[in-house]
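Before relying on records like the one below, remember that each one covers exactly one chain. Contacts with other chains, cofactors or solvent are not represented anywhere in the record.
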Amino acid sequence: MKASINRQDKYFVLRMSSLMFLILFLTNIFRVLKERLIVVFIGIESLCYIRIILLLPLALLVIYLLAALRKRYSPQRIFNLVLWFYIVFIAVFICVLYPYIEAFKLPTRWQEVVLHTLPTANRWMPLFTFWPITLLYLLAELWPVLICSNCFWELSNRRVITKEAAQAYPLYNLVGQSSILLTGLVLYLSNFSVKHATVVWGLDHVQCLGATASILMLGVSVLYNRITKQYAQLAMSQPHQSSNIKKLTWIQTLRLLYNDRHVANIFICTLIYYAVISIVQTLWLYNLSVYCTTPSLIATYQAKTLVMVGLSTLSFALMSSVLLSRLGWYVVLQILPFTVFIFSTGVWIGYTHAHLPWWSYTTRYLSTCLNVLVKSMKYAFFDTTR
């Protein structure tokens, strides 16, 4: 039987949905910022080096530090610490690091020494030459892990029991994913006001987005602390909430993956999916850098793509319940890899016929469609079936 959510719980779910909306709105803003700056300053060919050499070790380090902080501090204090770190960094970035990016570049003499010692370093040298951009990219990639996975769901799981999750989580997903569409619309409309902001305040589009992100993060801080303060005592008094739940250590987690085939398969599927979406995103950014040669063109194309992702996500979200009831979990789960196979085959054929004029445009649109469908199906189908 499904557990019904009482009136007080409904207010909690609505506020948590609003918090999810703000967090995902910020995720989309950070995604636009990092992609635009990578394309303009560093280059798409350096993405693999960022993800393997820098992002993977940093993500493991951050997870270890979070586990250590949880032993000493409350989740609310950790959340505020992480959030204010982001607020301060974005403020420093838009006020100091980005406007004077040339002054913070790695000195030319050092670059020559490194390239003379290691000639193959020319591909990853831009990562260290424009280190503020690289640092922003890394923090933008870690934002969903730090805020959404470790803070939002930790707060939600303390208040919503498993039986109520079937009613609460679809609302989280619907309200949260609608932020993609709104972000695209806001970015597309804001492109027309960039000239005004440049004339009046001397800010370009990157600085405007950074200022918007700082204001929204302040809103996230206020909303999160308000929810925590209002519902903390009530959550502790719930009879179904267990206060002595033991968390798994690293060794216990590895043993669980080794012994439980079901959990291991979910882990492998998730790992493979994120590898696929990284490749798809890199392919789309490459086409973006080829056909959009100025920051304004990049901004417009990013905004249009986000609008398409938002519309596609909402459409698939409305279809998912019908498809799950009629086709079943297994068939719905196959939609995503089948779509990736079809469109990636088309993109591959397009690159093999790049000498034909009409194939170059076809490849551009196919890569965009692949990026849109992979992201929207991930939100609507993959996350649900997982």
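Residues 71 and 351 are 52 Å apart (CA to CA).
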